[in-house]
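Example 9 (inverse folding). The structure is encoded as follows.
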């Protein structure tokens, strides 16, 4: 990794590089912004550059310090994230991480090392407790194993419970020498204002579709059409984009289009057969279904208007046939209906009610124009 491997975030990168160049390193930074935009990746690269033997604003990626950071095995960098409750050792009475959790932590740390955009998700872990922060305080007061700064990255800092936030605040009020805390969060409002005030605050911008598309093509070797579709669905979240690559979007899109066609020609039995697949699924899959339908309808409207900058480039022929068959249809009205369904889904309205209403409203629009 290097600064060039960070997707977008040019403003944040320049801010951190300037701090290194001018030797004005704060004792704490808060990198905040939407989920999946690379806050942890920025923090790790900042740590790599600070610990690199070259002492420059660009890490060399080759020295022993950089190689240790590359594997997330540097003794002067500790990453703190949510963990499940520990168990007590029967002989010593001390808190001890369960063996299966230790294995999961090792595995996910390796994944984070390979891809700094990877999101830690240890099973049954919902909070960062005071024990993790106390351990950071203990380590910060000790002499560093290696020369250089000691860096603590608290990933998803909003997950700290009240006790953990109070403990961190005490450290930030009297920061140990040569110690830097890097906090990342997508829920800045959940952090205590006193913690925020003691950090250099750096806003991380949402990623634009072109940045995500380019990264998918370069890093994941994704074909251009799929990369563009996934980038649109990711909604500015690169982590989400990578997750979407593992899902069968082509089949999901086909189901969404079949649903649309069944509604448009007034075949209620087929409509409800298509709906059964979603009424038994989770809300995440239903949201993807609606988003794919929305993108397909937007492309249909572009084709109807004689424009060619569509997302579903492999569906150009099908879109043209659809538009020709329903050339009088008010597609802007269908977009509004699907967007409203998405809004209701995100408000946790009953799935069956959403899809029944969607089918009825879309059918009225299409049949009215026939």
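The amino acid assigned to each position is listed next.
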């Amino acid at each position: 990794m290097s600064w060039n491997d960070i997707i977008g975030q040019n403003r944040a990168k320049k801010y951190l590089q300037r701090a290194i160049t001018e030797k004005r390193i704060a004792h704490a930074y808060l990198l905040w912004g939407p989920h999946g935009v690379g806050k942890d990746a920025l923090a790790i690269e900042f740590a790599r550059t600070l610990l690199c033997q070259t002492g420059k604003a660009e890490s060399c990626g080759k020295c022993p310090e950089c190689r240790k950071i590359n594997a997330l095995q540097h003794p002067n960098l500790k990453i703190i994230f949510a963990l499940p409750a520990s168990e007590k050792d029967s002989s010593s009475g001390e808190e001890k991480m369960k063996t299966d959790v230790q294995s999961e932590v090792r595995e996910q740390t390796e994944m984070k090392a390979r891809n700094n955009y990877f999101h830690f998700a240890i099973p049954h872990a919902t909070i960062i407790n005071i024990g993790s922060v106390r351990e950071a305080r203990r380590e910060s007061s000790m002499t560093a194993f290696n020369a250089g700064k000691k860096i603590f990255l608290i990933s998803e800092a909003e997950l700290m419970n009240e006790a953990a936030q109070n403990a961190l605040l005490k450290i930030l009020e009297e920061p140990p020498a040569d110690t830097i805390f890097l906090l990342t969060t997508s829920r800045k409002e959940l952090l205590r204002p006193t913690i925020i005030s003691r950090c250099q605050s750096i806003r991380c911008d949402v990623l634009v579709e072109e940045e995500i598309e380019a990264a998918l093509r370069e890093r994941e070797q994704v074909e251009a059409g799929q990369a563009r579709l996934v980038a649109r669905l990711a909604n500015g979240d690169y982590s989400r984009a990578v997750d979407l690559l593992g899902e069968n979007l082509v089949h999901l899109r086909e189901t969404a289009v079949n649903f649309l066609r069944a509604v448009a020609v007034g075949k209620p039995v087929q409509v409800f057969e298509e709906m059964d697949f979603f009424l038994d699924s989770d809300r995440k899959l239903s949201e993807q279904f609606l988003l794919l339908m929305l993108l397909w309808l937007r492309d249909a409207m572009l084709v109807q208007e004689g424009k060619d900058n569509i997302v579903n480039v492999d569906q150009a022929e099908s879109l043209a046939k659809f538009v020709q068959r329903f050339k009088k249809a008010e597609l802007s009205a269908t977009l509004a209906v699907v967007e409203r369904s998405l809004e209701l889904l995100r408000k946790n309205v009953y799935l069956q009610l959403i899809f029944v209403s969607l089918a009825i409203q879309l059918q009225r629009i299409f049949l009215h124009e026939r």
